[in-house]
Structure formats: structure tokens, C-alpha cells
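(Structure overview)
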Amino acid sequence: MTDLAPRKAPDEAPKHAPNQARVIPLRPGPASSRPPAPPAAAPREPLWRHLVGDVLRKERQAQERTLKDVADAARISMPYLSEVERGRKEASSEVLAAAAGALGLGLADLLARTHAELVRVTSRRPAAPTGSLRSSSVRNGGLCLAA
């Protein structure tokens, strides 16, 4: 088998440093240019299911009750209540009312505590531009739920 590639003369030095890969740019440009830094990601709004789950878990633990006890009282499965508390499941209003009732809370109490937690969490973030929906709802103490 013959090699068709031209061979280098033994005295010809490589054009790149030894033990380093030779980089061939795909786009023309200065060799020392760096790729632009990605834009800073805006902080993400917390999900409602995470906040509701946190409120339910904190209340259950404050009452020193087990997950099984509250699930039995609410007539929902223990694994499902666990998923709701961890924010993995988006529970229906019926399930939330049952879990809140098992803890001695009304649905309105659960939603009010969850709203307070939302305000607490989002108030630590930089202020939104004036006139935005988020800043006006927090400023006016409004609560909006969407199904």
C-alpha cells in the first residue's frame, strides 16, 4: 500500500507547540478572541407547587405529625402527599383542601400562607421594572391563581 500524502523533511519543525493540539478555527477572526459570555440568567420565579408543598410540610412538622397520619386524615395516599409536599405533583384544589383540613387549616389559610411565602421569597430578588405585573401584584397585595 502506498502513502499518497507528501512527507515532511526531517529538519522541518512543526508550526505548533509539541504536546498541544493544533486548532483550526472554523470561522475567521482574531486568534486570541474569546467566545462571548452567555447573558446572565434572570432569577426564576418559584413554582406554586413548590411553595404549597413547603407550607404543608412546615405545618405538618410544626404539629409534629407524621406523613401517614396526615395522609390518613386527608384520605389521600401517603406517597401522593409526599409528592405534593416535595413539589413534584400539582395537586387539585380538592386534594389541597383535604390536606389543609387534615392539618386544621382551611383552603384560604393554606393559600394565604403560600402567598406570604411567595412574597417573602420574591422580595429578596432585585425589583422588577415599574409597571410589570409582578411588582404591581406584590405592591397591591393581590393574589392571582390560574388553573
